[in-house]
User: Fold this.
Amino acid sequence: MMLEAKNVHKRFNGAEVLRGIDLQVEKGDVVAILGPSGSGKTTFLRCLNFLERADEGELVFEGVHYPMATATRQQIAQLRKKTAFVFQNYNLFLNKTVLQNVTLGLTVAGKMKKAEAKEIAIAALTRVGMAGKLDSYPSQLSGGQQQRVAIARGLASSPDIIFFDEPTSALDPELIGEVLAIMRELAREGMTMLVVTHEMDFARNVSNRVMFMEGGRVIESGPSGQFFSAPKEERSREFIRTILRQE
Amino acid sequence: MNDRLWNVIVDSFPKLLEYGLKATIPLTILSFALALVIAVAVALIQYAQVKPLLPVCRFYIWLIRGTPLLVQLYVVFYVLPEIGILLDAFPVAVIVFGFNEGAYMAETIRGSLESVSVGQMEAGYCVGLNYMQTMAHIVLPQAFRTAFPALSNSLISMLKGTSLASTITVREMLTEAKIINGRVLETGGLYVEVAVIYLAFCTLLTWLQHVLERRLARHGGTVK
Ligand SMILES: Nc1ncnc2c1ncn2[C@@H]1O[C@H](COP(=O)(O)OP(=O)(O)OP(=O)(O)O)[C@@H](O)[C@H]1O
Ligand SMILES: [Mg+2]
Assistant:
């Protein structure tokens, strides 16, 4: 088991948003986290990277235990070294060039030499097809390009798992494909990924597992083929029906 | 214009410019540097919610914003000696101007810090930076860029404000004009001359501001 989250609880000013989430991720898994708006998908993902502090829960990552409510700054830093996070709205550093966006973590946090970091950054940017824009600033890029740079920024630190929070929801429809293509390629190369998404095509054909959430609970989780062809829960069936109708 | 007035203006120009350059400008630069240090410190304390220091900052801003600059000058200049602290007029002016403008600039910088989206901070954490590193590399540079126009305004208004130092015996440009005026009894004309020199200084600063703003915009495009 690469990552295991147990009994994750989170409240926002009294309102319970996560009511005991469990998740197990094997190396190489691509898990699609599905669910209606407000079901707690983003909150759960953010808790796994300690961007949000869970009130209760246990995280085991690569054999190391992290008490989610009380993990120390050092523990969190150690976890983040091995993970990457891709945001819905990219969150590229606006005052940095494309190249600097990717090297910053390596040189400042990783104390790596500039030249070495640049080499790694260019390799990562090449993977996402953005090596031709090294000196551009985020404001000069399209949303799709920004998200590809954000993925390269995540890849640069060679994480063992990447968390994606609706990586294509902020994109114009014609730009979604270029980002999904990169994620599909990462999946093919064996990258472990946790993807909150509304892209049913991705969930069905790229992810190998699905976790379906509603109201802060896991309603159903299992192999994605089975989830889409033979969902066990009535709520899952309804959700799939609504989504398919929208598509 | 009569010849006598013209002669007075021409004769006094080197002296006035001299005091502009050797008093008004240094007074402005020193006061602004002090204001900037205070403002960044106060803004960071408020932004990072350093609990024990928050009331101090709030008190400071309340005090400065609630009293006139001229009165602050008088209070410090005339009250400090009475409690045994003897300072020259020039350092008193620097301290008062610095603390005064610092309060306004603190608000400017705090607003700019808060306008940087939390996502920038979170992205910094996710690539492994700690709080200090994220502040230094991401948040502060972006906030500074946002604050730049307002800080430039502060600098310009401070330059003009230093003329108040003439009321506490600091020998700067306006003081010099008063002295010459007393000697030649040419009321009016000399003050127009002083105004023109201030105008020239401010025009220069405004031009500098535009040049720097263009350069900042090139490095990082527009910050949303
Ligand atoms: N910082 C916050 N403060 C208060 N409430 C919050 C906060 N973040 C999320 N919530 C609430 O928690 C619930 C779950 O939010 P979350 O963003 O995790 O849902 P989601 O499943 O990601 O939804 P969506 O599909 O719309 O992104 C929502 O009711 C939301 O209003
Ligand atoms: Mg969400």
Chain A touches chain B at residues 49, 51, 73, 77, 80-81, 83-85, 87, 89, 91-96, 104-105, 108-110, 137-140, 153-154, 157 (CB under 8 Å). The pocket of magnesium ion (ligand 2) is lined by residues A 41-42, 166 (CB under 6 Å). The two ends of chain A are 35 Å apart (CA to CA). The CA atoms of residues 54 and 155 of chain A lie 26 Å apart.
